[in-house]
Amino acid sequence: MQPPAAQPGVYTSADLQQLHDQLLVLVNESETGALRAGALIEETNIADFRRLAAKATDAASRAVLANLERASANHLPAFV
């Protein structure tokens, strides 16, 4: 787990920083870009939940991650 940002918009993880910067460009581009950013966030969440669920060692954790994945899947069409 990465520590929180030292300051808003600055991350110690290069991957997280790249995602933040990409989202910022999309949001500032246009209303359509902001919707694309929202969709990208949900798609990233789904991938993260799946990755974590594959590593989960107990049923309760897998159930929580499955519920979170379903929630993101339900939100995704709102942005598309």
Describe the protein in words.
There is one protein chain. The termini are far apart. The mean pLDDT is 93. The chain contains three helices and no strands. It has helices at residues 14-29, 31-55, 59-79. It is mainly alpha-helical and 80 residues long. The longest helix has 25 residues, at 31-55.
Write the layout of secondary structure elements.
Elements: H1 14-29, H2 31-55, H3 59-79
The arrangement of helices and strands along the chain is HHH
Mean pLDDT: 93
The helix fraction, in percent, is over 70%
- End-to-end distance: 30 Å
Separate helix tally = 3
Strand runs, count: 0
Outline type: flat
Structural class: mainly alpha
Which band does the percent of strand residues land in? under 5%
Low-confidence stretches: none
Gyration radius, in Å: 14 Å
Please describe the biggest sheet, giving its number of strands, its sense, and whether it closes into a barrel: none
Task: Please give a handful of descriptors for the protein shown.
mainly alpha; 80 residues
Short description:
This protein has 80 residues and is an all-alpha fold. The chain has helices at residues 14-29, 31-55, 59-79. Helix 1 (14-29) runs antiparallel to helix 2 (31-55) and helix 2 (31-55) runs antiparallel to helix 3 (59-79).
